[in-house]
Amino acid sequence: MAPKKKDSNGFHPRIVVFACNWCSYAGADLAGVSRLQYPADIRVIRTMCSGRVNPAFILKAFKMGADGVLWTGCHFGDCHYMFGNYRAEENYQRLAKILDLLGIEKERYGLEWISAAEGQRWSRIINEFVENVQKLGPKKLGVKS
Ligand code: FES
User: How far is the CA of 144 from the centre of ligand 1 (A)?
Assistant: First the structure.
């Protein structure tokens, strides 16, 4: 992992990443083993499947002060629980509408599919996500912990 990214104002975003155990977490692990650089601004929460992530977890992360939340899992057809990622996709679409109503910019959240073999993809997605959140600055809504 690279050091925390700091913009010219000294802002370190607080970013939560939900990663499924079988694919995206393994992709993160591969990125680490391969010594690929990605910022240390993220806090990874491992779940057994992206379908296990309740949208309320994401709302809570924002409420507790996260500047961005990324939801990741296996590509379609690779989910170890068959259809968990399809459920995640449906829930994400519903959640995105709620987050939009709450005024949270769409660059602050996302859903990405990353396989265990895609360490480079993990690194690229995390770098881009952190950069985008940094450009927005600190989230204005929510309770800072
Ligand atoms: S096990 Fe990875 S998305 Fe279901």
Answer: 31
- Cβ-in-10-Å burial (0-12, 13-18, 19+) of 96 comes to middle
Q: Is the pLDDT of residue 144 over 50?
A: no
Taken in order of first residue, the domains within the chain and their CATH numbers are 15-131 (3.40.50)
Query: Does ligand 1 lie within 6 Å of residue 84's CB atom?
Result: yes
Residue keyed to tokens 């050091």: 3
Task: Give the gyration radius of the chain's Cα atoms.
Answer: 14
**Which of 30-39, 98-107, 133-142 shows the lowest mean pLDDT across its residues?**
133-142
Question: How far, in Å, from the CA of 139 to the mean position of ligand 1?
Answer: 29
Ligand 1 in reach of 27 Cβ (< 6 A): no
